[in-house]
Fold:
Amino acid sequence: MKASYQPMGVASDDEIGIMNGVSSYNSITPDTEAETGNITIKTISSHQPARRKRCFRRHKSFVSGIIVGIFLTWARTIYEDVRLIASIIGSSSSTHSNTHYNPKLHTLNTLLHLHSQNRTIVSIGPRPYFLINEMDNSNPELKSTLQKCALTIKSFRPSDFVLGHRGAALQFPEHTDRSHDAGTRMGAGIIECDINLTKDKQLICRHERCDLHLTTNVLVTPLASKCTQPFHPAIGNLPATAKCCTTDFTLSEIQNQMCGRMSSSNKHAKTPQQYISHTPSFQTDLYAHDCPHIQSHKNFIDVVNANGGSFSPEYKMLDYQFTKQYTRQMFLKQVLDDYNHTDPSRVYFQGFEWADLYYVAKTPFGLNTFALDKNWLALTYTKHQLQNYLQPLVDHGVTAVAPSISMLLEVDKENKLVPTLYAKVAKELGLGIVAWTLERSDALSKGGGWYYSTLSQVLRTDSDVIKVLDVLYEDVGITAIWTDWPSVATFYANCKGIMLR
Structure:
Protein backbone atom coordinates (compact mmCIF):
# COMPACT_ATOMS: atom_id res chain seq x y z
CA MET A 1 0.00 0.00 0.00
CA LYS A 2 1.40 3.36 -1.01
CA ALA A 3 1.27 6.58 0.96
CA SER A 4 3.02 9.92 1.03
CA TYR A 5 6.15 9.92 3.24
CA GLN A 6 6.10 12.22 6.23
CA PRO A 7 9.41 13.43 7.78
CA MET A 8 10.51 12.07 11.15
CA GLY A 9 9.58 14.16 14.13
CA VAL A 10 6.42 15.47 12.49
CA ALA A 11 3.20 13.88 13.68
CA SER A 12 0.71 12.76 11.05
CA ASP A 13 -2.85 14.09 10.98
CA ASP A 14 -4.11 10.78 12.37
CA GLU A 15 -1.50 10.77 15.12
CA ILE A 16 -2.56 14.28 16.08
CA GLY A 17 -6.08 12.98 16.15
CA ILE A 18 -5.04 10.20 18.54
CA MET A 19 -3.31 12.67 20.82
CA ASN A 20 -6.46 14.73 20.86
CA GLY A 21 -8.52 11.70 21.79
CA VAL A 22 -9.94 11.19 18.27
CA SER A 23 -9.23 7.92 16.52
CA SER A 24 -9.50 6.74 12.94
CA TYR A 25 -9.84 3.14 11.88
CA ASN A 26 -6.38 3.00 10.28
CA SER A 27 -3.39 5.29 10.50
CA ILE A 28 -0.61 5.32 7.96
CA THR A 29 2.87 6.42 9.28
CA PRO A 30 6.45 5.88 8.12
CA ASP A 31 8.50 3.03 9.68
CA THR A 32 11.14 4.99 11.56
CA GLU A 33 13.31 1.87 12.13
CA ALA A 34 13.91 1.33 8.45
CA GLU A 35 16.33 3.45 6.52
CA THR A 36 14.92 2.41 3.18
CA GLY A 37 11.79 4.61 3.48
CA ASN A 38 9.37 1.67 3.59
CA ILE A 39 5.94 2.51 4.86
CA THR A 40 4.32 0.46 7.60
CA ILE A 41 0.59 0.43 8.21
CA LYS A 42 -0.20 0.58 11.87
CA THR A 43 -3.63 -0.48 12.94
CA ILE A 44 -4.99 1.73 15.67
CA SER A 45 -7.88 0.68 17.82
CA SER A 46 -11.11 2.59 17.12
CA HIS A 47 -12.52 4.67 19.92
CA GLN A 48 -16.26 4.28 20.53
CA PRO A 49 -17.06 8.01 21.06
CA ALA A 50 -15.53 8.90 17.70
CA ARG A 51 -17.55 6.20 15.95
CA ARG A 52 -20.75 7.61 17.42
CA LYS A 53 -19.88 11.09 16.23
CA ARG A 54 -19.22 9.86 12.70
CA CYS A 55 -22.50 7.94 12.59
CA PHE A 56 -24.31 11.01 13.90
CA ARG A 57 -22.75 13.15 11.16
CA ARG A 58 -23.80 10.65 8.48
CA HIS A 59 -27.40 10.49 9.76
CA LYS A 60 -27.52 14.25 10.12
CA SER A 61 -26.53 14.70 6.47
CA PHE A 62 -29.11 12.13 5.36
CA VAL A 63 -31.95 13.78 7.31
CA SER A 64 -30.88 17.22 6.06
CA GLY A 65 -31.05 15.94 2.49
CA ILE A 66 -34.60 14.68 3.02
CA ILE A 67 -35.68 18.01 4.55
CA VAL A 68 -34.17 19.96 1.65
CA GLY A 69 -35.90 17.66 -0.84
CA ILE A 70 -39.28 18.13 0.82
CA PHE A 71 -38.77 21.89 0.94
CA LEU A 72 -37.91 22.04 -2.77
CA THR A 73 -40.97 19.94 -3.59
CA TRP A 74 -43.30 22.23 -1.65
CA ALA A 75 -41.41 25.49 -2.20
CA ARG A 76 -43.95 26.95 -4.64
CA THR A 77 -46.90 26.06 -2.42
CA ILE A 78 -45.19 27.56 0.63
CA TYR A 79 -44.30 30.67 -1.37
CA GLU A 80 -47.89 31.14 -2.58
CA ASP A 81 -49.31 30.71 0.92
CA VAL A 82 -46.84 33.18 2.42
CA ARG A 83 -47.67 35.60 -0.40
CA LEU A 84 -51.39 35.18 0.31
CA ILE A 85 -50.96 35.92 4.02
CA ALA A 86 -48.72 38.89 3.20
CA SER A 87 -51.28 40.30 0.78
CA ILE A 88 -54.02 40.01 3.42
CA ILE A 89 -51.89 41.67 6.09
CA GLY A 90 -50.62 44.26 3.62
CA SER A 91 -54.12 45.10 2.44
CA SER A 92 -55.44 45.58 5.94
CA SER A 93 -52.59 47.88 6.93
CA SER A 94 -52.20 49.91 3.75
CA THR A 95 -53.51 53.39 3.08
CA HIS A 96 -56.19 51.74 0.95
CA SER A 97 -57.32 49.40 3.72
CA ASN A 98 -60.82 50.82 4.06
CA THR A 99 -61.21 50.94 0.33
CA HIS A 100 -59.76 47.78 -1.12
CA TYR A 101 -60.04 45.24 1.66
CA ASN A 102 -63.05 43.90 3.43
CA PRO A 103 -62.21 41.05 5.83
CA LYS A 104 -65.66 39.61 5.16
CA LEU A 105 -64.87 39.41 1.46
CA HIS A 106 -61.55 37.60 1.80
CA THR A 107 -60.56 35.37 4.68
CA LEU A 108 -57.88 32.88 5.55
CA ASN A 109 -60.45 30.18 4.89
CA THR A 110 -59.40 30.64 1.27
CA LEU A 111 -55.97 29.29 2.21
CA LEU A 112 -57.47 26.19 3.80
CA HIS A 113 -59.82 25.75 0.85
CA LEU A 114 -56.96 25.74 -1.63
CA HIS A 115 -55.37 22.77 0.08
CA SER A 116 -58.63 20.80 0.00
CA GLN A 117 -59.66 21.53 -3.59
CA ASN A 118 -58.14 21.39 -7.04
CA ARG A 119 -56.06 24.36 -8.12
CA THR A 120 -56.82 25.53 -11.62
CA ILE A 121 -53.86 26.55 -13.74
CA VAL A 122 -54.70 30.11 -14.77
CA SER A 123 -54.35 30.98 -18.45
CA ILE A 124 -55.02 34.59 -19.42
CA GLY A 125 -54.29 34.40 -23.16
CA PRO A 126 -53.01 37.30 -25.30
CA ARG A 127 -55.70 39.93 -24.70
CA PRO A 128 -54.15 41.68 -21.66
CA TYR A 129 -50.83 42.03 -23.51
CA PHE A 130 -52.58 43.30 -26.63
CA LEU A 131 -54.37 46.01 -24.64
CA ILE A 132 -51.19 47.05 -22.80
CA ASN A 133 -49.31 47.41 -26.10
CA GLU A 134 -52.15 49.58 -27.43
CA MET A 135 -52.15 51.97 -24.46
CA ASP A 136 -51.31 55.60 -25.19
CA ASN A 137 -49.07 57.72 -22.94
CA SER A 138 -51.81 59.60 -21.11
CA ASN A 139 -50.96 57.57 -17.99
CA PRO A 140 -47.28 56.63 -18.40
CA GLU A 141 -46.91 55.37 -14.82
CA LEU A 142 -49.73 52.86 -15.21
CA LYS A 143 -48.48 51.72 -18.60
CA SER A 144 -44.93 51.27 -17.28
CA THR A 145 -46.18 49.27 -14.27
CA LEU A 146 -48.23 46.94 -16.47
CA GLN A 147 -45.38 46.50 -18.95
CA LYS A 148 -43.05 45.47 -16.14
CA CYS A 149 -45.61 42.96 -14.90
CA ALA A 150 -45.97 41.61 -18.44
CA LEU A 151 -42.24 40.90 -18.47
CA THR A 152 -41.85 39.52 -14.96
CA ILE A 153 -45.02 37.56 -14.09
CA LYS A 154 -44.61 34.07 -15.52
CA SER A 155 -47.61 32.40 -13.90
CA PHE A 156 -50.89 33.86 -12.72
CA ARG A 157 -53.09 33.15 -9.74
CA PRO A 158 -56.86 33.36 -9.27
CA SER A 159 -58.16 36.48 -7.57
CA ASP A 160 -61.35 37.12 -5.61
CA PHE A 161 -61.20 40.63 -7.05
CA VAL A 162 -62.32 39.06 -10.35
CA LEU A 163 -65.91 37.83 -10.71
CA GLY A 164 -66.81 35.82 -13.80
CA HIS A 165 -70.07 37.32 -15.07
CA ARG A 166 -72.19 34.34 -16.17
CA GLY A 167 -68.84 32.60 -16.51
CA ALA A 168 -66.91 34.03 -19.45
CA ALA A 169 -69.89 35.17 -21.50
CA LEU A 170 -68.04 37.39 -23.96
CA GLN A 171 -67.14 34.37 -26.11
CA PHE A 172 -68.79 31.38 -24.38
CA PRO A 173 -72.54 30.70 -24.18
CA GLU A 174 -73.54 32.12 -20.81
CA HIS A 175 -74.31 29.85 -17.87
CA THR A 176 -73.13 26.72 -19.65
CA ASP A 177 -70.58 24.29 -18.28
CA ARG A 178 -67.89 25.59 -20.64
CA SER A 179 -68.56 29.23 -19.75
CA HIS A 180 -68.31 28.61 -16.00
CA ASP A 181 -65.18 26.52 -16.53
CA ALA A 182 -63.57 29.16 -18.78
CA GLY A 183 -64.20 31.87 -16.19
CA THR A 184 -62.26 30.04 -13.49
CA ARG A 185 -59.50 29.09 -15.92
CA MET A 186 -59.00 32.78 -16.72
CA GLY A 187 -58.47 33.52 -13.04
CA ALA A 188 -61.91 34.59 -11.79
CA GLY A 189 -61.90 33.59 -8.14
CA ILE A 190 -65.69 33.89 -8.02
CA ILE A 191 -68.20 32.69 -10.65
CA GLU A 192 -71.82 33.80 -10.99
CA CYS A 193 -75.05 31.83 -11.35
CA ASP A 194 -78.26 33.83 -11.90
CA ILE A 195 -80.86 31.59 -10.28
CA ASN A 196 -84.32 31.00 -11.70
CA LEU A 197 -86.89 28.24 -11.30
CA THR A 198 -88.04 25.63 -13.81
CA LYS A 199 -91.60 24.38 -14.17
CA ASP A 200 -90.88 21.61 -11.67
CA LYS A 201 -89.38 24.05 -9.16
CA GLN A 202 -85.75 23.11 -9.84
CA LEU A 203 -82.99 25.73 -9.68
CA ILE A 204 -81.32 26.66 -12.96
CA CYS A 205 -78.67 29.17 -14.04
CA ARG A 206 -80.31 31.65 -16.43
CA HIS A 207 -79.91 35.41 -16.44
CA GLU A 208 -83.64 36.00 -16.76
CA ARG A 209 -86.60 33.72 -16.21
CA CYS A 210 -87.82 34.43 -19.74
CA ASP A 211 -84.67 34.47 -21.87
CA LEU A 212 -84.57 30.94 -23.30
CA HIS A 213 -85.55 32.25 -26.75
CA LEU A 214 -82.41 34.42 -26.60
CA THR A 215 -79.89 32.08 -24.98
CA THR A 216 -80.91 28.59 -26.21
CA ASN A 217 -82.07 26.88 -29.39
CA VAL A 218 -85.54 26.11 -27.98
CA LEU A 219 -87.29 27.73 -30.96
CA VAL A 220 -85.95 25.07 -33.33
CA THR A 221 -86.79 22.13 -31.08
CA PRO A 222 -90.05 20.19 -30.59
CA LEU A 223 -90.46 22.11 -27.31
CA ALA A 224 -91.05 25.45 -29.11
CA SER A 225 -94.83 25.14 -28.89
CA LYS A 226 -94.61 25.14 -25.08
CA CYS A 227 -93.17 28.66 -24.98
CA THR A 228 -95.20 31.40 -23.28
CA GLN A 229 -95.18 33.13 -26.67
CA PRO A 230 -94.11 30.98 -29.63
CA PHE A 231 -92.14 32.53 -32.49
CA HIS A 232 -93.90 35.10 -34.68
CA PRO A 233 -92.04 36.26 -37.81
CA ALA A 234 -91.33 39.88 -38.69
CA ILE A 235 -94.11 41.42 -40.77
CA GLY A 236 -93.56 44.84 -42.31
CA ASN A 237 -92.37 47.16 -39.58
CA LEU A 238 -93.33 44.72 -36.83
CA PRO A 239 -90.30 42.87 -35.43
CA ALA A 240 -90.08 39.13 -34.95
CA THR A 241 -91.05 38.09 -31.42
CA ALA A 242 -90.87 35.15 -29.05
CA LYS A 243 -90.90 34.56 -25.31
CA CYS A 244 -89.74 31.32 -23.72
CA CYS A 245 -89.37 31.02 -19.95
CA THR A 246 -87.68 28.55 -17.63
CA THR A 247 -91.05 28.03 -15.96
CA ASP A 248 -92.44 26.73 -19.26
CA PHE A 249 -90.27 23.61 -19.05
CA THR A 250 -88.98 21.02 -16.61
CA LEU A 251 -85.28 20.91 -15.79
CA SER A 252 -84.99 17.64 -17.69
CA GLU A 253 -86.53 19.18 -20.82
CA ILE A 254 -84.17 22.14 -20.72
CA GLN A 255 -81.04 20.09 -20.09
CA ASN A 256 -81.80 17.17 -22.41
CA GLN A 257 -83.54 18.84 -25.34
CA MET A 258 -82.01 22.33 -25.51
CA CYS A 259 -78.51 23.69 -26.16
CA GLY A 260 -76.94 26.88 -24.90
CA ARG A 261 -76.01 29.52 -27.47
CA MET A 262 -74.68 33.09 -27.61
CA SER A 263 -77.34 35.51 -26.44
CA SER A 264 -78.91 37.25 -29.45
CA SER A 265 -81.99 37.63 -31.66
CA ASN A 266 -82.81 38.86 -35.14
CA LYS A 267 -85.80 41.19 -35.12
CA HIS A 268 -86.06 40.90 -38.93
CA ALA A 269 -86.27 37.10 -38.87
CA LYS A 270 -88.85 35.28 -40.97
CA THR A 271 -88.03 31.86 -39.50
CA PRO A 272 -86.99 30.54 -36.08
CA GLN A 273 -83.59 29.57 -37.50
CA GLN A 274 -83.01 33.14 -38.68
CA TYR A 275 -84.10 34.42 -35.28
CA ILE A 276 -81.45 32.45 -33.39
CA SER A 277 -78.66 32.92 -35.97
CA HIS A 278 -77.63 36.47 -35.19
CA THR A 279 -74.55 36.41 -32.95
CA PRO A 280 -73.03 39.93 -32.58
CA SER A 281 -69.92 40.56 -34.69
CA PHE A 282 -67.66 41.06 -31.64
CA GLN A 283 -68.55 37.59 -30.35
CA THR A 284 -68.18 34.09 -31.77
CA ASP A 285 -70.02 30.79 -32.20
CA LEU A 286 -66.77 28.87 -31.97
CA TYR A 287 -67.72 27.45 -28.56
CA ALA A 288 -71.45 27.17 -29.23
CA HIS A 289 -71.79 24.87 -32.24
CA ASP A 290 -71.87 21.49 -30.46
CA CYS A 291 -74.67 21.91 -27.89
CA PRO A 292 -73.17 23.48 -24.74
CA HIS A 293 -74.76 22.04 -21.61
CA ILE A 294 -77.14 24.34 -19.71
CA GLN A 295 -76.33 24.34 -16.01
CA SER A 296 -78.59 23.64 -13.10
CA HIS A 297 -77.59 25.32 -9.85
CA LYS A 298 -76.13 22.05 -8.57
CA ASN A 299 -74.21 21.52 -11.84
CA PHE A 300 -72.78 25.01 -11.41
CA ILE A 301 -71.62 24.23 -7.87
CA ASP A 302 -69.93 21.04 -9.09
CA VAL A 303 -68.06 22.79 -11.91
CA VAL A 304 -66.82 25.65 -9.73
CA ASN A 305 -65.88 23.25 -6.94
CA ALA A 306 -63.86 21.13 -9.36
CA ASN A 307 -61.81 24.23 -10.21
CA GLY A 308 -61.40 25.34 -6.59
CA GLY A 309 -63.42 28.53 -7.09
CA SER A 310 -66.03 30.43 -5.09
CA PHE A 311 -69.69 31.09 -5.88
CA SER A 312 -71.91 34.11 -6.44
CA PRO A 313 -75.55 33.05 -6.69
CA GLU A 314 -77.90 35.85 -7.73
CA TYR A 315 -81.53 35.68 -6.66
CA LYS A 316 -83.77 36.22 -9.68
CA MET A 317 -87.47 35.36 -10.25
CA LEU A 318 -88.24 39.06 -9.82
CA ASP A 319 -91.24 38.95 -12.17
CA TYR A 320 -92.68 35.71 -10.83
CA GLN A 321 -95.94 35.42 -8.93
CA PHE A 322 -95.21 33.31 -5.87
CA THR A 323 -98.02 31.52 -4.05
CA LYS A 324 -98.86 30.40 -0.54
CA GLN A 325 -97.76 26.91 -1.52
CA TYR A 326 -94.38 28.16 -2.72
CA THR A 327 -93.33 31.52 -1.31
CA ARG A 328 -90.33 33.68 -2.17
CA GLN A 329 -88.80 32.84 1.20
CA MET A 330 -89.04 29.15 0.28
CA PHE A 331 -87.19 30.00 -2.93
CA LEU A 332 -84.47 31.83 -0.98
CA LYS A 333 -84.07 28.91 1.41
CA GLN A 334 -83.95 26.39 -1.43
CA VAL A 335 -80.94 28.20 -2.84
CA LEU A 336 -79.27 28.42 0.56
CA ASP A 337 -79.79 24.70 1.16
CA ASP A 338 -77.69 23.83 -1.90
CA TYR A 339 -74.69 25.30 -0.04
CA ASN A 340 -75.21 23.38 3.21
CA HIS A 341 -71.85 21.61 2.81
CA THR A 342 -69.96 24.69 1.60
CA ASP A 343 -67.80 27.08 3.61
CA PRO A 344 -69.96 30.26 3.88
CA SER A 345 -66.91 32.43 3.21
CA ARG A 346 -66.85 31.02 -0.34
CA VAL A 347 -70.42 32.10 -1.16
CA TYR A 348 -71.20 35.67 -2.28
CA PHE A 349 -74.97 36.17 -2.46
CA GLN A 350 -76.28 39.00 -4.61
CA GLY A 351 -79.60 40.40 -5.77
CA PHE A 352 -81.52 43.47 -6.89
CA GLU A 353 -84.21 42.79 -4.30
CA TRP A 354 -82.44 44.06 -1.20
CA ALA A 355 -84.92 42.37 1.15
CA ASP A 356 -83.54 39.03 -0.08
CA LEU A 357 -80.10 40.05 1.16
CA TYR A 358 -81.50 41.15 4.50
CA TYR A 359 -82.79 37.60 4.84
CA VAL A 360 -79.42 36.08 3.91
CA ALA A 361 -77.55 38.44 6.23
CA LYS A 362 -79.25 36.75 9.20
CA THR A 363 -77.86 33.35 8.21
CA PRO A 364 -74.30 31.98 8.34
CA PHE A 365 -74.07 32.97 4.66
CA GLY A 366 -74.33 36.65 5.49
CA LEU A 367 -70.54 37.05 5.35
CA ASN A 368 -70.61 38.24 1.73
CA THR A 369 -73.65 39.98 0.28
CA PHE A 370 -73.82 42.28 -2.75
CA ALA A 371 -76.78 44.65 -3.14
CA LEU A 372 -77.14 45.10 -6.89
CA ASP A 373 -78.34 48.56 -7.88
CA LYS A 374 -79.70 49.97 -11.13
CA ASN A 375 -81.56 52.91 -9.68
CA TRP A 376 -80.29 55.52 -12.11
CA LEU A 377 -82.20 58.24 -10.26
CA ALA A 378 -79.71 57.82 -7.42
CA LEU A 379 -77.22 59.73 -9.56
CA THR A 380 -79.40 62.83 -9.13
CA TYR A 381 -79.57 62.51 -5.32
CA THR A 382 -77.89 64.91 -2.94
CA LYS A 383 -75.34 63.58 -0.49
CA HIS A 384 -77.94 63.48 2.28
CA GLN A 385 -80.41 61.62 0.06
CA LEU A 386 -77.74 59.09 -0.88
CA GLN A 387 -76.90 58.50 2.76
CA ASN A 388 -80.55 57.80 3.54
CA TYR A 389 -80.80 55.58 0.46
CA LEU A 390 -77.77 53.39 1.24
CA GLN A 391 -77.88 53.37 5.07
CA PRO A 392 -80.41 50.48 5.29
CA LEU A 393 -77.81 48.22 3.66
CA VAL A 394 -75.40 49.00 6.47
CA ASP A 395 -78.09 48.59 9.11
CA HIS A 396 -79.05 45.13 7.84
CA GLY A 397 -75.45 43.89 7.59
CA VAL A 398 -75.11 43.86 3.79
CA THR A 399 -71.40 44.00 2.98
CA ALA A 400 -71.30 45.70 -0.43
CA VAL A 401 -73.31 47.70 -2.94
CA ALA A 402 -73.00 46.69 -6.60
CA PRO A 403 -73.97 49.31 -9.20
CA SER A 404 -73.00 49.60 -12.87
CA ILE A 405 -69.73 51.25 -13.90
CA SER A 406 -71.67 54.29 -15.14
CA MET A 407 -73.03 54.86 -11.61
CA LEU A 408 -69.50 54.92 -10.19
CA LEU A 409 -67.60 57.01 -12.75
CA GLU A 410 -68.20 60.33 -14.44
CA VAL A 411 -66.16 62.73 -16.60
CA ASP A 412 -65.05 65.98 -14.96
CA LYS A 413 -64.39 69.36 -16.56
CA GLU A 414 -60.83 68.32 -17.42
CA ASN A 415 -62.09 65.23 -19.27
CA LYS A 416 -60.80 62.90 -16.56
CA LEU A 417 -62.57 59.88 -15.12
CA VAL A 418 -63.49 60.55 -11.49
CA PRO A 419 -65.70 58.91 -8.83
CA THR A 420 -69.35 59.94 -8.68
CA LEU A 421 -70.97 61.26 -5.51
CA TYR A 422 -72.74 57.90 -5.25
CA ALA A 423 -69.36 56.14 -5.09
CA LYS A 424 -68.02 58.56 -2.50
CA VAL A 425 -71.02 58.18 -0.18
CA ALA A 426 -70.97 54.38 -0.42
CA LYS A 427 -67.30 54.42 0.54
CA GLU A 428 -67.90 56.81 3.44
CA LEU A 429 -70.59 54.51 4.81
CA GLY A 430 -68.09 51.65 4.88
CA LEU A 431 -69.78 49.59 2.17
CA GLY A 432 -67.70 47.52 -0.18
CA ILE A 433 -68.23 48.46 -3.84
CA VAL A 434 -68.56 45.89 -6.62
CA ALA A 435 -68.80 47.18 -10.20
CA TRP A 436 -70.47 45.64 -13.27
CA THR A 437 -69.65 44.84 -16.05
CA LEU A 438 -66.23 44.91 -17.76
CA GLU A 439 -65.60 43.45 -21.23
CA ARG A 440 -69.27 42.98 -22.08
CA SER A 441 -69.69 45.24 -25.09
CA ASP A 442 -68.38 46.02 -28.53
CA ALA A 443 -65.13 47.91 -29.13
CA LEU A 444 -64.68 51.10 -27.11
CA SER A 445 -63.59 52.81 -30.32
CA LYS A 446 -67.22 52.34 -31.42
CA GLY A 447 -68.56 53.88 -28.24
CA GLY A 448 -68.58 50.79 -26.05
CA GLY A 449 -72.34 50.43 -25.96
CA TRP A 450 -74.64 50.97 -22.98
CA TYR A 451 -72.10 50.14 -20.26
CA TYR A 452 -69.85 53.06 -21.22
CA SER A 453 -72.44 55.42 -22.67
CA THR A 454 -71.83 58.19 -20.12
CA LEU A 455 -68.04 57.89 -20.49
CA SER A 456 -67.70 57.48 -24.26
CA GLN A 457 -66.37 61.01 -24.75
CA VAL A 458 -63.03 60.04 -23.13
CA LEU A 459 -62.84 56.37 -24.21
CA ARG A 460 -61.24 56.11 -27.63
CA THR A 461 -59.52 52.72 -27.88
CA ASP A 462 -60.06 49.25 -26.44
CA SER A 463 -57.03 49.72 -24.19
CA ASP A 464 -58.94 52.42 -22.30
CA VAL A 465 -60.76 49.60 -20.52
CA ILE A 466 -57.60 49.23 -18.41
CA LYS A 467 -57.78 52.92 -17.48
CA VAL A 468 -61.40 52.43 -16.44
CA LEU A 469 -60.39 49.47 -14.28
CA ASP A 470 -57.51 51.40 -12.72
CA VAL A 471 -59.68 54.39 -11.77
CA LEU A 472 -62.31 52.06 -10.34
CA TYR A 473 -59.73 50.37 -8.14
CA GLU A 474 -57.45 53.25 -7.19
CA ASP A 475 -59.95 56.13 -6.93
CA VAL A 476 -63.39 54.61 -6.42
CA GLY A 477 -62.01 51.79 -4.29
CA ILE A 478 -63.96 48.84 -5.67
CA THR A 479 -63.52 45.54 -3.84
CA ALA A 480 -64.36 43.42 -6.91
CA ILE A 481 -65.52 43.68 -10.51
CA TRP A 482 -67.80 41.63 -12.73
CA THR A 483 -66.35 40.86 -16.13
CA ASP A 484 -67.41 38.83 -19.17
CA TRP A 485 -63.75 38.08 -20.02
CA PRO A 486 -61.83 37.67 -16.74
CA SER A 487 -58.28 37.57 -18.16
CA VAL A 488 -57.76 41.35 -18.23
CA ALA A 489 -58.91 41.86 -14.64
CA THR A 490 -56.88 38.80 -13.59
CA PHE A 491 -53.72 40.29 -15.10
CA TYR A 492 -54.41 43.60 -13.34
CA ALA A 493 -55.07 41.89 -10.00
CA ASN A 494 -51.84 39.87 -10.23
CA CYS A 495 -49.88 42.97 -11.18
CA LYS A 496 -51.30 44.94 -8.24
CA GLY A 497 -51.39 42.00 -5.82
CA ILE A 498 -55.16 42.24 -5.21
CA MET A 499 -56.87 39.44 -3.26
CA LEU A 500 -54.74 36.71 -4.82
CA ARG A 501 -55.15 33.08 -3.87
